[in-house]
């Protein structure tokens, strides 16, 4: 049995474990191949060396072993939307604290959004994030660069140079590019580089100063609403531009049935279009705002229960490709305000898996579909080697107890900010051990 520290030291986080390690007596679940079988998995030199029923206690000479007790070994989760404060807002979150939160949630790769100060729209800033992550983070970190300078939506950034520097995709963060000609140019240039464009969907003029979903609940609370059309109209425009340019396009978050129908139609026409949904929009709805609870203020806003159910159906059918945490740390000074004045955003790296497993236990989404949207599909879209249980793949893994009950305690979150909508929520299932390059970077308990 291997003895693991509760959290690995940052400077050793990306070094392969020194001795081969056999995870035995495990349920191996690989959403990419459909594998679901009991057996073992051998880790050597930071990669998966072998897996199958033949790997048992003592079967591999010279290897340490970890008895998984029949629990699930799956690819580590890959989160395509993480807002991190570094550089510029380290009081809200750093790459180090975000990586510890990720590891505790079974997440082995995070994609950082460019909403920093300064904005990640320069080669030097891409390099800074990569170097800082290498020195301080426990998990893999890939920066998404700004598609427009300073995220202003006016001038296109140097996409080719940013991609060469290590940007994994391009986005305008939490704002949409309103200028259709500029968006066309972005998609055209991105196609030349084979780059993925990840776009936030909101028509700012239609949304105006809305703070929650438009409808009966907003009217009752006396709050200005944002119609679903603000999202769907922007998505429909973007799909037409994709058809015009052929560029690879990913809708960062959709939140309503009408947007799902637009995505389904685009995919039916064979367009290079994919989409994501946040774990919040899969498990919460506008009614959770209750008596102006600001931890439930998000962008896009929480929608109706009918729209939430549509999002679940989209993941279950595979029409929605990925699930993201939309991790967005906010301090008390930004959240403890009247609802209309409060910052939007919620932390989610540590709760994404537990919240997602609610859908599995309720019978709404199969385990394979859930894990596919959390690991295999984002790896495929981003061109990453992880997200799979196959020989030679990186040993970025999560050992998950699907049945373990636990209660979210805000004060125990590893994120610097504590703005979780799941405070005191009861979950069933969590990551017990998280491996990055074969090394345990988190151990529960």
Q: Which SSEs are present, and which pair or pack?
A:
Elements: E1 21-30, E2 35-44, E3 47-52, E4 64-67, E5 72-75, E6 77-82, H1 95-104, E7 107-112, H2 123-136, E8 140-143, E9 145-146, H3 159-165, E10 170-171, H4 180-193, E11 196-199, H5 204-207, E12 212-213, H6 216-221, E13 225-226, H7 229-245, E14 248-251, H8 257-268, E15 273-278, H9 279-283, H10 305-317, E16 322-324, H11 332-335, H12 352-361, H13 367-382, E17 397-407, E18 426-436, E19 439-443
Helix pairs in contact: 4-7, 7-8
Shape: globular
CATH class of the largest domain: Alpha Beta
Q: Kindly state the mean pLDDT as a whole number?
A: 95
Please count the helical segments: 13
Give the CA-CA distance, first to last residue: 16 Å
The count of strands amounts to 19
- Quickly count the domains: 2
Summarize the biggest pleated sheet: 8 strands, mixed
- The CATH topology of the largest domain is TIM Barrel
Give the amount of beta strand, in percent.
15-25%
Counting helices, strands and paired strands, the structural category is alpha/beta
CATH superfamily of the largest domain: Metal-dependent hydrolases
- Unreliable segments (pLDDT under 50, ≥5 consecutive)? 1-13
What is the second-level CATH architecture of the largest domain? Answer: Alpha-Beta Barrel
Q: What portion of residues is helical?
A: 25-40%
| Oligomeric state of the chains present here | single chain
């Amino acid at each position: 049995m291997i003895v693991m520290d509760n959290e690995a030291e940052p400077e050793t986080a990306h070094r392969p474990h020194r001795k081969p390690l056999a995870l035995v007596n495990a349920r191996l679940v690989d959403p990419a191949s459909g594998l679901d079988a009991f057996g073992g998995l051998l880790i050597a030199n930071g990669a998966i060396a072998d897996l199958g029923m033949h790997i048992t206690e003592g079967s591999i000479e010279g290897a340490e072993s970890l008895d998984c007790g029949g629990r699930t070994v799956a690819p580590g989760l890959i989160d395509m939307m993480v807002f991190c404060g570094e550089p510029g807002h380290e009081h809200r979150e750093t790459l180090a604290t975000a990586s510890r939160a990720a590891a505790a949630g079974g997440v082995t790769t995070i994609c950082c959004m460019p909403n920093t100060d300064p904005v990640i729209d320069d080669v030097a800033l891409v390099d800074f994030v990569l170097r800082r992550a290498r020195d301080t983070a426990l998990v893999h970190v890939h920066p998404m660069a700004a598609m427009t300078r300073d995220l202003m939506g006016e001038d296109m950034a140097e996409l080719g140079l940013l991609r060469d520097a290590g940007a994994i995709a391009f986005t305008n963060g939490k704002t949409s590019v309103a200028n259709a000609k500029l968006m066309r140019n972005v998609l055209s240039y991105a196609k030349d580089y084979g780059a993925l464009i990840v776009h936030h969907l909101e028509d700012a003029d239609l949304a105006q100063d809305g703070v929650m979903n438009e409808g009966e609940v907003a009217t009752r609370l006396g709050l200005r609403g944002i119609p679903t059309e603000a999202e769907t109209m922007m998505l429909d425009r973007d799909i037409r531009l994709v058809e015009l340019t052929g560029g690879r396009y990913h809708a960062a978050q959709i939140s309503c049935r009408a947007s799902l129908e637009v995505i389904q139609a685009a995919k039916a026409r064979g367009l290079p279009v994919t989409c994501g949904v946040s774990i919040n929009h899969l498990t919460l709805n506008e009614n959770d705002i209750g008596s102006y609870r600001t931890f439930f203020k998000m962008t896009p806003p929480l929608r109706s229960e009918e729209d939430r159910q549509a999002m679940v159906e989209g993941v279950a059918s595979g029409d929605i490709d990925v699930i993201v945490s939309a991790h967005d740390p906010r301090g008390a000074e930004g959240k403890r305000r009247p609802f209309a004045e409060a910052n939007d955003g919620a932390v989610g790296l540590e709760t994404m898996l537990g919240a997602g497993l609610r859908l599995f236990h309720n019978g709404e989404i199969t385990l394979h579909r859930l894990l596919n949207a959390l690991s295999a599909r984002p790896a495929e879209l981003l061109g990453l080697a992880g997200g799979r249980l196959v020989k030679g793949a990186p040993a970025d893994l999560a050992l998950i107890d699907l049945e373990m009950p636990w209660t979210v305690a805000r004060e125990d979150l590893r994120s610097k900010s504590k703005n979780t909508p799941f405070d005191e929520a009861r979950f069933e299932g969590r990551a017990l051990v998280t491996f990055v390059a074969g090394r345990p970077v988190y151990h529960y308990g």
